[in-house]
Amino acid sequence: MSNIHRTTIELFIRGADQGHIPEERRAVYEQHLASCPDCQFNLSLYGKLQAGAALVWPASISPQRSKQQLLDGINAHICKKRRQKLLF
Amino acid sequence: MHIIRGEVDNLLLSCAVDDPVIIETMVRDYRAPVYRLALSILNDTKDAEDAVQDIFVQAASALSRYQVGTNFKSWLYTIAVNTCRDYMRRRAARANLYRAWNAIQSFAARSPDPEDSAIQNESHVRLWSLVNELNEKQRLVVILRLVHDLSVSEISQILEINEKTIYSRLYDALKNLRQRITSSPEYEGFWNEFLS
């Protein structure tokens, strides 16, 4: 990460993961963010992607294949593997 | 090392590795998130369903190699991402783009409140369709971070790359998207309003 724009995004994301931006770096980050339209745009974009993710990829989508079919498929595969092991 | 133990970890400690109850628990607890992960990477419901089956088959076969307490979810997601990558490689890029667009269109159509949120949804769908045009490295990081809400350290574990690279890919993805948006003829109107 060589430039201030990269660092700003990194601090923002790291802050989101850890719940805060380290005090000693926050001033630099806030000062840069206030005067940089590119970083403002990036963070706005990040926020819109985050908000849109739940709309575009709803959590409720579930596969048509039922759990039982899935389990049957897995069990059949494992039985096949076991048979192969027994044969060889 | 920080020990993380979920239900599968506990079962692995108390049952034989090939005990069906472990597989059932794994499928029950992780089927939905793994399907969402596969769908978000593959953008095709049929491929995602097939991939989910392959992912669980591979996970079930490899359970003996999982080290209890080292984060089962990340371990399973690693298998999932690698399986999805295999699926992606099998598909032609042109066909993929076409299907991605169709899949996204169909998700937007399933919105529970189509009239009130139609314009907003369309904007989000357009933004995410730009994400789908990013290269695989940037796209995967954006999807894992923003669709699946994984931390940078989890993504690092899943993709087996260091955290600095994740930040860098996220920044490059945003920069790429910004360039695409600002070079779009509709920027002054549509995007400007949406992103403000």
Question: What structural class results from the helix and strand content of chain B?
Answer: mainly alpha
- Overall SS class of chain A: mainly alpha
What is the number of E strands of chain B?
0
The level of helicity of chain B is over 70%
Number of domains of chain B: 2
Give the N-to-C terminal Cα separation of chain B: 43 Å
Largest interface: A-B, 39 and 55 residues
Poorly predicted runs of chain B: none
Describe it:
The complex is a heterodimer of chains A (88) and B (196). Chain A is mostly helical. In chain A, 78% of the residues lie in helices and 0% in strands. Chain A is built from four helices and no strands. In chain A, 19% of the residues are buried. With 196 residues, chain B is an all-alpha fold. Chain B has two domains: 7-89, Orthogonal Bundle (Rna Polymerase Sigma Factor, Chain: A), CATH 1.10.1740; 110-195, Arc Repressor Mutant, subunit A. Chain B has helices at residues 7-14, 20-42, 45-62, 72-90, 93-109, 114-131, 136-147, 152-159, 163-182, 187-195. Chain B is elongated. The termini of chain B are far apart. Chains A and B meet through helix 1, helix 3 and helix 4 of A and helix 2, helix 3, helix 5, helix 6 and helix 7 of B.
Gist?
The complex is a heterodimer of chains A (88) and B (196). By secondary structure, chain A is mainly alpha-helical. Chain A contains 4 helices and no strands.
Topology:
The complex is a heterodimer of chains A (88) and B (196).
Chain A: H1 4-18, H2 23-35, H3 37-56, H4 67-87
Chain B: H1 7-14, H2 20-42, H3 45-62, H4 72-90, H5 93-109, H6 114-131, H7 136-147, H8 152-159, H9 163-182, H10 187-195
Helix pairs in contact in B: 1-2, 2-3, 2-4, 3-4, 4-8, 5-6, 7-9, 8-9
Q: Could you list some keywords that capture this structure?
A:
heterodimer; A: 88 residues; mainly alpha; 0% strand; elongated; B: 196 residues; Rna Polymerase Sigma Factor, Chain: A; Arc Repressor Mutant, subunit A; 10 helices; 78% helix
